[in-house]
């Protein structure tokens, strides 16, 4: 895996966590996220904390898969995570203007980083 690919993935995960931290610290209003469906700050804060843990878990899994000596296993895991991120992209595109204009491009950036990771792993075979 190239250094730039690892940096792209790290940047993606840092920005994804930062977006959730901005919601928790009220830098980003709750009406801008979750499709505007959160009725209270405490409800959205709980969702944001859960999102941070999920993002961190997927990020750690990604680093584990990258470190695998068995390239086939690592690549299969990266493909599954990429499909998961692809599946969540439409939720951002159907959300608020903030989700469409900021979070959807962030998702697309992450998908690009994963595609690059998959191609890098495949080239190492």
Structure, described:
With 125 residues, the chain is mainly alpha-helical. It is built from 4 helices and no strands. Helix 1 (3-24) runs antiparallel to helix 4, helix 2 runs antiparallel to helix 3 and helix 3 (71-93) packs antiparallel against helix 4. The longest helix is centred in the middle third of the chain and has 27 residues, at 41-67. The radius of gyration is 15 Å and the shape is elongated.
Q: How are the SSEs placed, and which strands pair?
A:
Layout lengths: L2 H22 L16 H27 L3 H23 L3 H27 L2
For the CA atoms, what is the radius of gyration?
15 Å
Low-confidence stretches: none
User: Average pLDDT value?
Assistant: 92
**Structural class from helices and strands?**
mainly alpha
Please state the overall shape, judged from the principal axes of the Cα atoms. elongated
Number of strand elements: 0
Number of helices: 4
N-to-C series of helices and strands = HHHH
How much helix, percentage-wise, in residues? over 70%
